Amino acid sequence: MNTLFGEKKEGATKIVLKSVDEYPEAPVSLGTTLSNFTGDWRTFIPVIDDEKCVKCYICWKFCPEPAIFIREDGYVGVDYDYCKGCGICANECPTKAITMEKEEK
Amino acid sequence: MEYKPIRKVVSGNYAAAYAAKHARVEVVAAYPITPQTSIIEKIAEFIANGEVENLEYVAVESEHSAMAACIGASAAGARTFTATSAQGLALMHEMLHWASGARLPVVMVDVNRAMAPPWSVWDDQTDSLAQRDTGWMQFYAENNQEVYDGVLMAFKIAETVNLPAMVIESAFILSHTYDVVEMIPQELVDEFLPPRKPLYTITDFDNPISVGALGTPADYYEFRYKIQKAMEEAKKVIHEVGKEFGERFGRDYSQMIELYRTDDADFVFMGMGSLMGTVKQAVDVLREEGYKVGAAKVRWFRPFPSEELYELAKNVKGIAVLDRNFSFGQEGILFNEAKGVLYNTDAHPIIKNYIVGLGGRDFTVADVRKIAENMKAIIDKGELDVEVDWYHLKR
Ligand code: SF4
Ligand code: SF4
């Protein structure tokens, strides 16, 4: 995965950059915020049923975060550090392969 | 390959269009506005005649969209160009920040034109100077040759420091006046300006990124500092690229302030753009009349050549700053910058602001002589009459 903007650490809620030299030249990131993970905004979580998925990647296109990625086997996965649970993917999926379920925390 | 220039008689606008072509720009997104229009027409003609490969022209419905399209193209890795003028540049203002903030080396030609109302299409620097704080570098061309050279250098400098750059030419005085321009054969331009190596690209689909993400108070500040560092770096790069340009093509641009007959000058005229051509001519005339004067043409306004200005100021008794622009509620913009630089130094020449040529009003050698007489009297007396002189005002 691209780590142009800092490094993601397991269990962290954001990327912490301590000195100006650690910052990249340009403010590009993996999600819609530079260092905060938007994953902890979530109440509902997208669950993908590979059996129904036809690999159209409409969800990949529409995810605003963008938390959907294409797995090696061609199906889609979700980066839960960034998925904010907005449900757009579930709404747009033509085969209803994605359902939004209440996340247990 | 030996350098043999190709001489063409072209307007400033055509010089800009040819430079964009020779820089092998890949995307041009623009909306025509007087007096910029012929730059865009010429580029469209290159495409229609099949004279350019891999050049996409995006016709848009406003300057705001033009800059937005340029930002997208540049983020995708393309060498990107546009041109505008006055109200069009003002309409781009919001987008200019997105280009510099995302560190995209878009190059734009702005045809300096007075802001309305009163509605005007004539020369005035207030449109570009109002964009001072957008994070764009600014190069002011004195003549059509400098428009052409400026665009080529701007790409190289912009792509080295990852900041956008504006090349600025005077409305009509340059944009529509024909002059001989020495153009560089394509192979030699290619050697001088190799293909762009982008810092990042949104078309690397294996490594997707967001551009323009939200920066919380924890991160915003550092990116501002990085832009300033890039501006400081740009001073070095401008020097090197300007020197290289001189070595390759015979016109040296290593200095951010071009000095003309300043060595033993009592006082100098300082200004930007085409009016400095008139000033240099006037300096020759005045020297014959016994005035010890010189000219200091500020080529790059951003980054600002503070060190070069300080060196100049140490050696003269007076500086007459000629501003074809005005910041309402204060004074001429170059004057304001110059005073700011000199305050914390031990160089304290008398410095006076002459507001000249606003909205295309004629500025001649005779005007420079009158200013010289006034400056001489001030220096002899050792005190200013007025700090800001609305030179042409009908009194
Ligand atoms: S939109 Fe639905 S069907 Fe298409 S790739 Fe995504 S999950 Fe699969
Ligand atoms: S719910 Fe779906 S569309 Fe929304 S952020 Fe998560 S993955 Fe993206």
UniProtKB/TrEMBL annotation, chain A:
It is an enzyme of class 1 (oxidoreductase). The keyword Repeat applies. Its cofactor is [4Fe-4S] cluster. Residues 44-73, 74-103 form the 4Fe-4S ferredoxin-type domain. Its EC number is 1.2.7.7. Heterotetramer of one alpha, one beta, one delta and one gamma chain. GO terms for molecular function: 3-methyl-2-oxobutanoate dehydrogenase (ferredoxin) activity; 4 iron, 4 sulfur cluster binding; metal ion binding. InterPro entries: 4Fe4S_Fe-S-bd (IPR017896), 4Fe4S_Fe_S_CS (IPR017900), PorD_KorD (IPR011898). This is 2-ketoisovalerate ferredoxin oxidoreductase. NCBIfam families: PorD_KorD (TIGR02179), PRK09623.1 (NF007202). It holds the Pfam family Fer4_21. Signal peptide: none annotated. Keywords: 4Fe-4S, Electron transport, Iron, Iron-sulfur, Metal-binding, Oxidoreductase, Repeat, Transport. The gene is vorD. The keyword Transferase does not apply. PANTHER family: PYRUVATE SYNTHASE SUBUNIT PORD (PTHR43724:SF1).
Automatic annotation (TrEMBL), chain B:
Pfam families: PFOR_II, POR_N. Residues 19-241 form the Pyruvate flavodoxin/ferredoxin oxidoreductase pyrimidine binding domain. SUPFAM superfamilies: Thiamin diphosphate-binding fold (THDP-binding), TK C-terminal domain-like. Keywords: Oxidoreductase, Pyruvate. InterPro entries: PFOR_II, Pyruvate:ferred/Flavod_OxRd, Pyrv_Fd/Flavodoxin_OxRdtase_N, THDP-binding, Transketo_C/PFOR_II. It comes from the Archaea. GO terms for molecular function: oxidoreductase activity, acting on the aldehyde or oxo group of donors. Gene3D superfamilies: 3.40.50.920, 3.40.50.970. The keyword Metal-binding does not apply. The keyword Oxidoreductase applies. Residues 265-368 form the Pyruvate:ferredoxin oxidoreductase core domain. GO terms for biological process: carboxylic acid metabolic process; response to oxidative stress; sulfur compound biosynthetic process. Transmembrane segments: none annotated. Heterotetramer of one alpha, one beta, one delta and one gamma chain. This is Pyruvate ferredoxin oxidoreductase. The lineage of its organism: Archaea, Methanobacteriati, Methanobacteriota, Thermococci, Thermococcales.
